[in-house]
Amino acid sequence: MASDLENLIGTIEKLSIKPVYDTNWCDMPAEIKLECIGKMDLNERLSLRCTAQAEKSLVDSQKIEFNYGRFCGHDEGFFGFVLYSDNKCNLWKHLYNKSETIGLMKYIKNVGVFENLYISFGNLFADNEQFATDDGLFTAKNIEFRKCDINNIISVLNKLKEGVESIKMNGKMSDDLSQILAISHIQNVPYWHIEYYNKTDSLRMVAQMWIETNSKIGSIFQVSVKRNGSFEEFLEHFDDRIVYFQVDKSKDERRVRIRTENADIHILLERGLDDSVAIDFADEYFRLMVIPAEMKECEYEDDCQEWICKIDTEIYEYDSDNSVDDYDYEDYDNYERDWYDSDNDGWNPDNY
């Protein structure tokens, strides 16, 4: 970092016959400061915000890209942040105060551009005025929720910029799925899934939402359920729309295809079954897809292993090429480790 600044200052001095400023930070023009800030990591930016109050707006105007962000905690008052840039740990921080946590989250939310964002904050954001009234939005390509109640999920999704490509959540939420389905991100995201959902209505409700919103071809929803009956409930609800129905006991295959209000698109439901996931397996795996109406049966995908592994990465001990686990991220769930908590990390809640 220091060498980058020295090289930049040296270049500027060579280009200027009569410098109108010294090499002190306060004498540099805003455009040069922005170049410098763009080369700083998160901790250096936090330090600059605290030591140079006049520069806060400049620091806050510069985005920073993260491969991975993990925000975890408990309602009892333990909150942690892990951020990776260029697959290296950029920040490892824990806090014990909800207000301070929201303050740091506010800054990270406004400047961070995330490839993958993982949130497990219980009920931190729901009904939190400081979070709700902030105009800043998360920028994330892929977002995953764990151990969040439904109000918390809704609060974060409402603070998410357009452009999200995948949304993942587990079934430890309120049973009222309709609140989730009303969110525009859920209605438009190319891929989303619920892991270990505890009711039988998800397939029916998602397909109905797609029909009502005229969803795009290629939209995918996956779910793993602990209770039998999801497939049967779907069949009963869409009985008058069925154009294709297959139950092949010899191959343990189950598919059903329904028409929508749009003559150009159909919705295909598949249950994932193979040698590893048998008909009597404890969990059931389903995939809903919006497909072209002219799609032929021979074009169906027979191998379900790859799509099942998107929702359950361990069932085949399968490592997806697109999994964030490809990075060597430390196990944040191990709260016994020594936390990064440098006295010079630049974090001061009074400055947010």
UniProtKB/TrEMBL annotation:
InterPro entries: F-box_dom, She-1-like. Residues 25-65 form the F-box domain. PANTHER family: F-BOX DOMAIN-CONTAINING PROTEIN-RELATED, F-BOX DOMAIN-CONTAINING PROTEIN-RELATED-RELATED. This is F-box domain-containing protein. The lineage of its organism: Eukaryota, Metazoa, Ecdysozoa, Nematoda, Chromadorea.
